[in-house]
Design goal:
disordered C terminus; 6 helices; 4-stranded mixed β-sheet
Length: about 200
């Protein structure tokens, strides 16, 4: 191969490399995130991958559960990713599964439409559950006849069984037929300690 041909090939290679570098530099950040470039992912509508440590992304954890138009609507107010991943998401997933078609659950953020109204319904609390527009729910089976869903199960402010009682009372009030799932609740098991399937609590 002549020196002239080698030189041409080298120049072409350099031009391709420069073009590729410029493409990356000028690429939209959301496109970079979609290709896994950099540590942070964008939070747009595109599908997001898991974070480098294998944990689900915030977008995945905030995906709504159940069907819109269900008789019971639960807004789970939680900003901390740790709390969102555990215990909020697991508890809400169990509720949505056991009351399929009867419950719709979402995980709004301060940017969500109607968030200010939700805060009013939540009495200003940014951590807890708003169930059918109320954070304090009448529950005849509760000790005081009602349960306040402010705070988190992490601090034993309320638990999964309380949510089930509130959901079932709402369904009764709406005249909706259902099979009670109150005794299906499970004790909280921190992530990493879930080797054996927990038995039923209560």
């Amino acid at each position: 191969m002549s020196m002239k041909v080698k030189t041409i090939l080298i120049v072409i290679g350099l031009l391709v490399a420069i073009a590729g570098f410029n493409y990356v530099i000028n690429m939209d950040p959301t496109q970079l995130a979609a290709r896994g470039v950099g540590q942070e992912h964008s939070h747009g509508d595109e599908e997001e991958e898991e974070s480098p440590d294998g944990r689900p992304s915030e977008a995945d954890l905030r995906q709504p559960l159940g069907e819109e138009g269900a008789p019971v609507v639960i807004h789970a107010l939680v900003q901390d990713m740790g709390e969102l991943e555990f215990p909020f998401r697991p508890i809400m997933s169990a509720i949505a599964q056991d009351y399929a078609g009867l419950v719709y659950i979402d995980f709004p953020t301060p940017d969500s439409e109607g968030y200010d109204e939700l805060l009013e319904q939540a009495k200003g609390s940014i951590l807890g559950l708003v169930i059918n527009g109320e954070i304090i729910k009448e529950v005849p089976e509760a000790n005081l006849g009602f349960i306040t869903f402010q705070g988190s199960p992490t601090f034993e402010d309320w638990n999964e069984r309380d949510v089930r009682l509130a959901v079932e009372h709402e369904l009764e009030e709406a005249g909706v037929e259902f099979t009670s799932k109150v005794e299906h609740s499970h004790p909280l098991i921190p992530p990493g300690a879930q080797g054996a399937h927990a038995g039923h609590s209560h």
